[in-house]
Design goal:
CATH class of the largest domain: Alpha Beta
Radius of gyration: 23 Å
Oligomer: single chain
Shape: globular
Largest sheet: 4 strands, mixed
Strand order of the largest sheet: 1-4-3-2
CATH architecture of the largest domain: 3-Layer(aba) Sandwich
Number of domains: 3
Structural class: alpha/beta
């Protein structure tokens, strides 16, 4: 299948005999190319053992908000049993890798009638003998979780609103003043572009009583915080008394404090072989009563980072509404963020395009030459000739 890695199952099974234990599980990734079927050049995922060692032909691995809200609850095991009975099992948090693959294999052997399981602080696995069966099980379980939250989670979101929401026009005006200033402060080593989101889930979160404590807990699902960093920066802004000049005056100190906090997190958690500390600036900026700004190396990545944090907001809303939301322990989060296998993946990524992170302003000739120039810039191509028209 184009775009997918293909491997011999008998060779993957044979890897179990080479496994030397948890301290050596990363070395197992190096064996995966030796299991390749038909010289397929597509590299196998580090999640391969998680999928391969489930003894079913088809396995789905999903991270829907409703399921992660269960997985990130303090009593996630009890909630899983309450909602799904024996249909869906549960396993405690374990970083994705060979060891977790063995856990899944053992669970399936001991629970042959289970149709899937929830991984604490991670997501959902479902399976079946056919693609249709696995797909239908996935949809059924996700919808069951959504329906359960709709009837059970009736408390005010995040402890209720304690701050007003500014009108849409004012929200945009505040964002327009903040974004270029923040961008200037965090783009010294890498140019960044921003994205603004004032959707309803974001507004519910940034006006809530529990904004600060929940934001400080960080996200739970690894797929979230790899995009958003472990936690956001909450901007000091009072929508009831919107003094934007005061907020702008305090930005430099707030950003410096975040950087210092991130550096301290790195120093607390680093291991002897950890990669060097990456950009210490926040990715997500939350403005009470206004919305969320995300910054990344390009516009698409900034937008996607914002979408992932909206997922995290939905998770916190669900988990804190029926239980207590629990973020990943700090060391576990660090070990994912600075995982050597993740670092290797980052190093393999193509270099940014020449115009990535830059902003171009095209004036004049919008109906023809100006439009063509803008299109070329959007594609990240070098303009061989530029003409100025008055």
């Amino acid at each position: 299948m184009d775009g997918f890695s293909t491997l011999y199952m008998e060779k993957l099974e044979a890897l179990k005999g080479l496994y030397r234990g948890l301290e050596h599980e990363d070395e197992m990734v190096g064996y995966l190319p030796h299991c390749t079927f038909n010289l397929n050049p597509r590299a196998a995922s580090i999640d391969t053992p998680l999928h391969a060692y489930v003894p079913k032909k088809h396995v789905d691995h999903m991270h829907p908000d409703a399921i992660i809200a269960i997985a990130a609850s303090k009593n996630s095991r009890e909630l899983t049993q309450q909602i799904f009975g024996t249909d869906i099992g549960w396993l405690p948090w374990k970083r994705p890798g060979f060891e977790l693959g063995l856990w899944l294999s053992k669970f399936c052997a001991e629970n042959p009638n289970a149709r899937g399981l929830i991984l604490e602080s991670h997501g959902l696995f479902t399976w079946g003998d056919t693609a249709k069966e696995a797909y239908e099980t996935t949809i059924e379980i996700i919808n069951k979780a959504i329906a359960w939250f709709e009837t059970t989670n009736t408390t005010p979101a995040f402890g209720g609103a304690v701050k007003p929401v500014l009108p849409a026009e004012q929200r945009r005006a505040v964002a327009q003043k903040l974004m270029p200033v923040i961008r200037g402060m965090i783009s010294a080593d890498e140019r960044k572009l921003g994205h603004f989101d004032d959707s309803q889930p974001v507004l519910d979160f940034v006006t809530s009583k529990n904004l600060a404590p929940l934001a400080a807990l960080g996200t739970s699902c690894p797929d979230h915080f790899l995009r958003t960093k472990i936690c956001p920066l909450v901007i000091d802004f009072d929508p009831a008394n919107p003094d934007i000049d005061k907020t702008l005056a305090g930005l430099e100190a707030a950003i410096a404090e975040y950087r210092a906090g991130y550096a301290a997190y790195y120093e607390r958690c680093k291991r002897d072989n950890s990669p060097a500390m990456r950009d210490p600036n926040a990715v997500v900026y939350l403005i009470p009563g206004v919305g969320m700004i995300t910054f990344a190396k390009d516009k698409a990545t900034a937008r996607i980072s914002g979408e992932f944090y909206v997922n995290a907001i939905n998770v916190m809303r669900g988990a804190s509404g029926v239980s207590t939301y629990v973020g990943l322990p700090e060391q576990e989060a660090f070990d994912i963020e600075y995982w050597l296998l993740e670092e290797a993946k980052l190093q393999r990524m193509p270099k940014p395009k020449m115009l990535a992170g830059k902003i171009a302003l095209v004036t004049g000739g919008a109906g023809g030459i100006g439009k063509a120039t803008a299109n070329r810039l959007m594609q990240g191509r070098r303009l061989r000739r530029a003409r100025r028209y008055r």
